[in-house]
Amino acid sequence: MQSDTVKRVIEANSKDRFRLWWAAIKLPMYSVAVMPIWLGSAIAWRQTGHLQLLPFGLFLSAAVLILVWLNLSNDVFDAETGIDRHKYHSVVNLTGKKEVIFGLSNLCLGLGLVAIMAISWWQQDATVFVMVLLCCALGYSYQGPPFRLGYLGLGEPICFVCFGPLAIAAAYYSQTQTWSSSILPVAVLNGLTTTLILFCSHFHQVADDIAAGKRSPVVRLGTARSAQFVYGGCIVFYAWLVASVVWLEVPWPTLLALSSLPWAIYLCQRLHHFHAVPEQIKESKFIAVQLHFWSSLLLGLGYVL
Ligand SMILES: C/C(=C\COP(=O)(O)OP(=O)(O)O)CCC[C@H](C)CCC[C@H](C)CCCC(C)C
Ligand SMILES: O=C(O)C1=CC(=O)c2ccccc2C1=O
């Protein structure tokens, strides 16, 4: 149900409506779906010398569809708890059609899983399907009833495991049908930056989260300590990258990913100055998306070059 304020904002002029829909779609966020597939396939390509286009294309499409499901169903479940009542760019608030959006989200999930099933059928091996199904189950547990683990502050570990080891191992397996511990350094790096995005998404929502009883990590730690946590996370990321090249046989061209450093510095500085000013840091998750995009793109290039 739309509150009066949401209705008034949504009935605003067409330029504002465009802006709200653009924010609702969150296009840049879709790099989080693409990068695990890119990285798992890049590592496989370096080891086998070729890329299997069919599983690569199917996995990419499935990952995007699954992310559409995750985001649309997130808006539906958040509409049920009331936590999104000030989120004008929620697709449910914009359309006022919760059931339709729920149906659409489930259609995307179904299509995504069919694409993954096609990989497993082609390989006559259910491993990739089981791994992606596990990711989806964990994604559901983050936001859907009766679990809503995100409300307990457990979203970050789930996010790390899904977008790090699970998704990258599944993408690697879809190319090679084998396991390899060589994916682990990169899985940690991609898991870290994706989790950083989720962590940063909480800063500007603290008041609404407290009102709805959501104990996000930023609510638990407070915004000042959370900003320090982001700083620590960035240091761990770059230290792990360099250590992986020095000690874990990760190819040295992956150090190209160091050139994402300006995004990390910008993010840390913004959060340091404005951690408690929602208007100033509401875009911080998209700064983290830039950090994730460039670091993961260049890491993968480091394997392909
Ligand atoms: C939907 C997510 C965050 C939004 O959270 P929130 O409700 O706080 O924010 P807004 O309402 O303000 O937008 C992301 C949650 C991620 C989740 C913990 C893990 C999902 C796992 C995926 C299903 C994995 C897909 C992997 C793919 C590459 C196969
Ligand atoms: O809307 C958001 O805040 C997020 C959406 C999303 O799909 C995602 C995926 C992985 C990590 C973080 C996030 C978000 O924060």
Automatic annotation (TrEMBL):
**Subcellular location as annotated:** Cell inner membrane; Membrane
Q: State the Gene Ontology BP annotations.
A: menaquinone biosynthetic process; phylloquinone biosynthetic process
One Pfam family name is: UbiA
Q: Which residues form a coiled coil?
A: none
**UniProt-listed Enzyme Commission number(s):** 2.5.1.130
Would the keyword Transferase be found if you checked this record's keyword annotation? yes
Query: What is its pathway?
Result: Cofactor biosynthesis; phylloquinone biosynthesis
Write down the chemical reaction(s) this protein catalyses.
2-carboxy-1,4-naphthoquinone + phytyl diphosphate + H(+) = demethylphylloquinone + CO2 + diphosphate
- The source's superkingdom equals Bacteria
Mind listing the UniProt keywords for this protein, alphabetically?
Answer: Cell inner membrane, Cell membrane, Membrane, Transferase, Transmembrane, Transmembrane helix
Report the membrane topology from the UniProt record.
Multi-pass membrane protein
Statement: the UniProt record of this protein carries the keyword Transmembrane helix: yes
User: Any stretches that span the bilayer, and where are they?
Assistant: 20-39, 51-70, 100-119, 126-143, 149-173, 229-248
Family membership: Belongs to the MenA family. Type 2 subfamily.
**Function, please?**
Involved in the synthesis of phylloquinone (vitamin K1). Catalyzes the transfer of a prenyl chain to 2-carboxy-1,4-naphthoquinone.
Q: Which PANTHER family match?
A: 1,4-DIHYDROXY-2-NAPHTHOATE OCTAPRENYLTRANSFERASE (PTHR13929), UBIA PRENYLTRANSFERASE DOMAIN-CONTAINING PROTEIN 1 (PTHR13929:SF0)
Tell me the protein's name: 2-carboxy-1,4-naphthoquinone phytyltransferase
Q: Which gene encodes it?
A: menA
